[in-house]
Design brief:
Distance between the termini: 77 Å
Shape: rod-shaped
Strand content: 15-25%
Number of strands: 17
Helix content: 40-55%
Number of helices: 14
């Protein structure tokens, strides 16, 4: 804009100077021409009433040298010329000013020279005897006059251009400076009235852009927050295979510590099978596959994004796979655990039915059938209980209960077993909490029962109940055989036994600790286990 204003001002100055010079030349030329014509008329009118002889005498006396005077006979022959010799001059009757003078008494004309730089004015009058007197004067033509003053005009133009260059530059800066100093990010007063609509439009556009940017930023932040906090990994790539976005879960999955945006997907994924699915997604085909990475299982979905590229979703199915494995193991364990007592019952009953057993042995066989049936009933009851705990369908009402009283009740129920195993059970401390009484009883019963069954003769089981400021802590410690370190993470699984042969002897169902775990979770508690072989086990529960 500054350059354009500057050039326009210089151009306007040059054009103005040229037009002014041309106009002045034209005015001066017209004025000068008028003077010349007036002078010629005045000089010719001095001879108007004279005859040829008188005119000749006057011309010889005055001898005018500032103009050309020609005396012409009525037949067109030149009688006198003060500028050239009359010999060889052509007949002048055909000259424009002569023809006009013969007809009207006077005439005038104007003729340019061959060089186009001079112009001659002619004025003729008819004398008293019919002769013709013509006066002429040669001056510069308008082109000659213009070319004559052109060097001066050029010098003046250059001088004015030099001054105009400085003035135009200064004036341009003064014009443009207020515009350059406008702060379009804030409301401002336009420096010129002509800019008011422009500034108003810019302010409206600025407000609209600010609102759109704020909305876009909010949406971007929302999307970024959602993607970064998703446990599922997401990778978005364009049609050229360049990464557009990688959320935190996907970045941690591939253990990349640098920003991957703008890089090729080959720098992130090097698995050939996955890359083949990526190519299929970019060509518009949906697919999925399962992978294992860093000890976890993932289901990967490859989805095309219309006219954009492809989306890769990593879904962590480790827990799902573990749950399915647990269900399969549970089904297998249940079938096995149910089949074992049923087989025993069936075998003993069949032998009794076929009369193979002696009469004296019937009591033992009936006792075995009774024990196996009792074990089967206990197993089924535990399965039903853990199923209810799984679905939280027990429907038990929570009430304020004394943990010490329930623990004492469970210990008394197990006192006979404790005596048989020569294990001493002690309970210390007390606390009250809102809980399901029967579930808390089942929790204490199973923990104390395990501590007795897997203890050593002459061992101890200590139950300690502590009331903290915001929590309640239960500790069940025994001096038993302990649990190997590699089995400690699995003892709360259903039907898991460290020593199956010993579990058979003690009559356990393998569901006790699983039931305890579910009860603690239903009461929003936490469990911790610490154990060493031959040194005992400590189970800590925090509500």
């Amino acid at each position: 804009m500054k350059k354009r204003i500057f050039v326009d001002m210089i151009l306007l100055t040059v054009i103005s100077l040229v037009l002014v010079a041309a106009a002045l030349c034209f005015v001066f030329y017209n004025q000068f021409s008028g003077i010349v014509k007036s002078e010629l008329r005045e000089r010719a009118d001095l001879f108007r009433n004279a005859d040829t002889q008188t005119a000749m005498q006057r011309l010889i006396i005055f001898k005018p040298n500032d103009m050309r005077i020609t005396l012409i006979h009525p037949d067109g022959i030149v009688a006198f010329d003060n500028a050239v010799s009359t010999e060889g001059l052509a007949n002048h009757l055909d000259r424009e000013e002569i023809v006009e003078a013969v007809e009207t008494g006077w005439g005038e004309s104007r003729r340019l020279s061959d060089t186009m730089g001079l112009e001659t004015y002619y004025y003729a009058v008819r004398l008293a005897d019919g002769s013709l007197l013509r006066v002429a004067k040669t001056t510069s033509s308008i082109w000659g006059m213009f070319s004559g003053v052109l060097p001066a005009v050029i010098c003046i133009i250059f001088f004015i251009l030099a001054a105009g260059y400085l003035l135009a530059g200064n004036l341009t800066k003064r014009i443009v400076a207020p515009i350059n100093n406008l702060d379009l990010n804030t409301e401002s007063t336009p420096p010129y009235d002509e800019l008011v609509p422009f500034i108003r439009t810019i302010e409206q556009q600025r407000e609209r852009i600010a609102a759109q940017f704020s909305d876009l930023q909010s949406r971007t932040d929302t999307i970024s927050a959602i993607m970064d906090n998703m446990s599922e990994g997401i990778i978005l790539i364009n049609r050229q295979g360049l990464i557009l976005s990688v959320n935190k879960s996907a970045a941690s999955l591939f253990e990349t510590g640098t920003a991957m945006d703008g890089k090729n997907i080959l720098e992130l994924i090097r698995d050939l099978e996955m890359l083949e699915q990526v190519r299929a997604a970019l060509s518009g085909k949906r697919s999925e596959l399962s992978i294992r990475r860093s000890g976890k299982s993932y289901r990967v979905f490859f989805s095309p994004v219309t006219d954009r590229g492809a989306l890769i979703l990593f879904l962590d199915i480790t827990e799902k796979m573990a749950a399915e494995q647990m269900r399969r193991e549970f089904s297998a364990n249940v079938s096995h655990e149910l089949k074992t007592p049923l087989t025993s019952i069936y075998g003993h009953a069949e032998m009794l039915y076929n009369g193979i057993v002696k009469e004296s042995d019937h009591h033992g066989f009936f006792g075995k059938i009774k024990d196996e049936a009792a074990r089967l009933i206990a197993l089924i009851e535990d399965i039903i209980l853990i199923s209810e705990l799984d679905e939280n369908t027990g429907g038990e009402t929570f009430e304020e209960v004394s943990l010490s009283a329930i623990a004492t009740e469970a210990a008394e129920a197990l006192s006979l077993k404790a005596s048989e195993h020569r294990v001493a059970v002690s309970i210390s401390g007390d606390a009250s909490m809102s809980a399901g009484r029967s579930m808390i009883y089942e929790m204490f019963y199973n923990l104390i029962d395990n501590a007795i069954k897997y203890n050593k003769p002459g061992g101890q089981v200590k139950v300690d109940i502590s009331q903290m400021k915001d929590t309640i802590e239960l500790t069940i410690a025994d001096t038993g055989i302990g649990i190997p370190e590699d089995a400690q993470s699995r003892v709360f699984e259903r039907f898991y036994r460290v020593d199956k042969s010993r579990s058979k002897k003690t009559g356990g169902t393998g569901l006790g600790l699983a039931i305890v775990k579910h009860i603690v979770l239903l009461h929003k508690g936490k469990m911790a286990l610490k154990s060493s072989c031959d040194q005992g086990t400590v189970v800590t529960i925090t509500f």
